Structures are given as structure tokens and as C-alpha cells.
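Below is how a single chain appears once it has passed through the pipeline. First comes the sequence as given, then the structure the pipeline wrote out for it. We keep one example in the README because the format questions we get most often are answered faster by looking than by reading.
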Amino acid sequence: MTNPPLEMAQNSDSSEPLPNEISSKNLPVSPVPDPQTFPAKNSYGLFYPGRDAIPSTLVKDDEAVKTAVNRMTPQLRTLLATKLLRLTANQGSSRLGVKAALELVSPQTVRLLMQQETRRAAWTPPTQASTQASTQSFSERQLPETAGITVTVGSRIQYQLTNYSDRPLYFIVLGLDAAGNAIALSPGKGTTSLEKTAIPPGENFTIPPTGIDWKLQTSGLVETHLVFSTARLTQAYQALGTVLRTDVRSIGLLPNLLEVVQGLLQDLHEASAPLLPRAEIPVDSYAMDVNAWATLSFMYQVV
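Resulting structure:
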């Protein structure tokens, strides 16, 4: 698949601005080594616009430019994939009825940390069960992804997904862990795994499933994108399946995030095609209808 430019189109009766670039103050900070302890004069790294170093891109050894480019190419591809994912965020315009809650899991309780839902769905979202909710009011719990949520290292978390629309919805979970590594939810082996990613109307789905712990091991900023679609995410899961081969759902490192995201965008483009006006769409563009997909994004700091 070719790599089209970062051009996307939403079909909606209301214009919603694309999400802004994340400010450097919300990004993980890797201290730049002191010159006295970092003697190399010919080494390279990647930095955010605020001049904070991107984790794991600085080295102490001298290196040639070509060596540095080859070393940092995987990080650059991951950053491009993450930018594409952020461009799909449409919480305020999607017509699908979906809700996602980030929960802190302990042996005795499940506490709600953050919750997001689509705002323009035709259906009324269900309320959070009182046994799982925190003591905050419903309005206070609807926090934006940059609201400064912090979680301690070693905590166990899960996402509770709810489909309150009138049709099955397929989904995929992609993002970055606190170390800046790309992560994904493994769907399992075989073509039947695509069926397992569907949430029936009015049903919930927990990630990771019961019996599989998602433990936060490293401090830093975590970014997670939950993408829902009215059609199967065939190409995304084909790219995902070549890396994560397992019989059970689990969270794993993903070295080819860009290929997965490119497949995902093509899946959403094809799912939207029957809903879009008859018009010639450039071959290097993705056209998406807000009735076909929803992306909910979460960010929180692990300390």
C-alpha cells in the first residue's frame, strides 16, 4: 500500500476542527543529558516542539547521520502513525452510539478514572453503574483526554466499551505506552478473530478481558485510541495479525503501527463509501462519513 499524504475528509452536517497537536507540556519529558556527562559531539535525537527529548531517541555514542536516520526511522514511522490516528478523533461529530470508560482495577473495587462518549448519537447513552462509578457526579466524570489524569506505576487498568447504537460495531485499540512504544490489542488467530472484535447493540466489552491483567510498568504519558466501525476492520487486523499471533486477547508491542493505521484508514474509507455522496474522490485521499466510525482518545500520566 502506498503512503498517501495526511489528507482526510469528514462527511458531516457540522464542521468539527481536527484535534490540535498535543502541546509539549503534556508530553513525556526525557531530560537532555548535561554536556559534561554527554561527551559525544556527533549524536542525534528527536525532540518535541517544546525541545523536550522524545524518550529513547538519544544516544551517548558518536554516530554518522545515516546511522542516526536508520536508528530513528522506526520512531518516525510511529510518530506519523500516531498523527494519523489523532486525525480520526471525532467524539463531537460521530453519529455512532459508543462510550468508553477508563477504570482502575483493584482486588476489591473498580474505580472510574475517565469517560468519553460520542455527543451526537441518536440514542441516549446508558448511565454508569453505581457499583463501578467513583463518588464524582456524572458531569465531573466526563473529563477530556488532557485533563491531567494521573495513575501510579504498578496500577492495573481496563477499558469498558459500550455500544448503545442499533447495530454491531467492530473496534480496534491502538496507542503508545509510557515508554513511547506502539501497542495494540491482539484479536487472536484466524479469520474468526474479526468476529470477536464486534460488540452487539446494547452490550459491553472489557479490555483486557477478565483474567488478563494490564499493568502499568513505566512512568510517562500513555495515549490510547479506540476506533469503532460499522464494518469489519479487515485490513487493519491483517496487518496486526502478522505481528501479534496469539489465541487470546492481550496487549502487546507493535513494531508496525504505521502499516496497521494505514490499513485502518482504508477500512474506514471503504465502510464510509456507501454513505458518501457520489463524487470522485482523489486516489491519495481518505473520505469518511461520521455515520460509519467513531474514535475516542484517552491520555493519562503514569507517575
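The longest strand covers residues 220-229.

See the next section for the split statistics.
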